Amino acid sequence: MTNDRTNDRTDDGTEQRSEQRLVYLSGGVGGARLAHGLNRLLAPQQLTCIVNTGDDFAHWGLQISPDLDTMMYTLADVADEERGWGLAGETFAALEWVKRYGGPSWFGLGDRDLATHLMRTEWLRSGLDLTEVTQRLCSGLGVAARLLPMTNEPCATMIDTPSGTLDFQRWLVAERGLPPVTRVWSRGTDQPSAQVLAALDTAQLVIIGPSNPYVSIDPILALQGVRERLAQRPVLAVSPIVHGRAIKGPLAGMLETLGAHGQRSASARSVAQHYGALLDVCVVERGDEREFAHDLERPKVFAADTWMRTRADSRSLAQSVLTLATELGYWA
Amino acid sequence: MTNDRTNDRTDDGTEQRSEQRLVYLSGGVGGARLAHGLNRLLAPQQLTCIVNTGDDFAHWGLQISPDLDTMMYTLADVADEERGWGLAGETFAALEWVKRYGGPSWFGLGDRDLATHLMRTEWLRSGLDLTEVTQRLCSGLGVAARLLPMTNEPCATMIDTPSGTLDFQRWLVAERGLPPVTRVWSRGTDQPSAQVLAALDTAQLVIIGPSNPYVSIDPILALQGVRERLAQRPVLAVSPIVHGRAIKGPLAGMLETLGAHGQRSASARSVAQHYGALLDVCVVERGDEREFAHDLERPKVFAADTWMRTRADSRSLAQSVLTLATELGYWA
Q1: What ipTM did this prediction achieve?
Q2: Global pTM?
Q3: Which residues on chain B are in Cβ contact (under 8 Å) with A115?
């Protein structure tokens, strides 16, 4: 494994760079891929990832945090990249046995993944908060970058459909994301953790990962004090839409039904419009910058190779983003 | 699989026999082996097993009932007979991952076994009692005989040692049963379940399995109303001691330190003395009946092949016991 992280113990000026702090907002898979690239390029103390917990839910009596787990597994290089969730080389013996008992089997919990949820649930029950539990799990897997759940309190993303309101996982997994979405909203706390606010307060730069704005990023932005802090520092987003399509997940359909008036299409521009004045810079797939040709100045739009198929792609995109941020004066 | 259970739908007199009810008191492995034999020979509605729950404990936030599980897995023909606990062909992927997180790994929970504990814990939390949960789990594994936890409330077997008091599993598994035992006692309820009392009320015969009297059978006998009901019907015990040794587990050492005055030896006779006037009949390994040569009449002692190495041994011992009970007029 190559380690090209900035070494902050040298005395040649690198130290100053390593004091820069970057906050990265993320959901699951797409966001985790760019995080992997950033994690390779930055010193551990430079990178804080604030992760959506709106998808969190209880299953088999266990507390499950899908986006935190995807981030953690990806940064630890143990994620199943092909399948897009869970651990590589995973087995499903417990799930098969749960089926024998007639227990709920619609959510695919692997055997090693179960260990994560068992320890999380047990440690939460013992009185640790989700931030502390996440730190412990990350330590176990050797993840040095800081992963922060957006909040320590329940905050569930709810999906309204024409036939009723569903929990996010019910809608995405059990209903396979098929029912049309008429509204996305949060049920629960609007308080971020103290660590989230402190990380934003000391950040030179905020990067919004190529995650679903509705169900991954908006839940973070909706927490009290987050938008205000983002307004005070440069914010760069990487579009999760590439040439009019979502790389993964239900975003394209959501943009078509939930997009602002006149922007109901799956496009990088719809994503940028969704974030609005919050964004200083939007990084889009090469060619997609043409969608913005007739727009006024905000946000600045830059093209890059954003489709991350490999770890090399992730690192390359992370490098492009950091270089761009440096050129714009946001990052030293 | 052969099925030589009594068919209660024939009209040739078998029907009358199938209305007989047998209650079987048991702990884990040894008791489960004889239960397997009895289950082969009796119709499902004839056999009710009352199972020790004094070993139950919480681990990884899950409710674990070792003796109930051993009984259930054995009757379902999915137990690991070699190892003496858990499921045959089990994997331990979750346990390995728990170790990465620094979680407790002293108790060997397999992946499929986890499904049992997850569903038990979830169903208990949903409001079912342990009797109902056990019935559901048994249904899932196709166990037709009735397994009853001795109680639905917590009742923990505690082990006093010269260096302090330990939970039973801590003593047996984490401490490998090594600290000398100065006393065994129960912490928790003294109330059996209503189903346990009802089963005893309608039993023609009670058989005490070849389980550890101190930590498997005494916890059942200590519950209110159990001894009184046993006094009103024939009680037959099968000795867990064979030629002065316990087939499995820590019983021999316990008999040596806990035996009644003058009986501090690992022998079938010490076991019979421990049960005292409760017993009508004691079935011992061939040759061990000589230990009782100079005793007065109670209990009646009979010799049989009690060491169950195979399923055929289990069935053969069950047949011997039922034949004996029939000859004594306890069973039709």
Answers
A1: 0.88
A2: 0.90
A3: 93-98, 100-101, 103
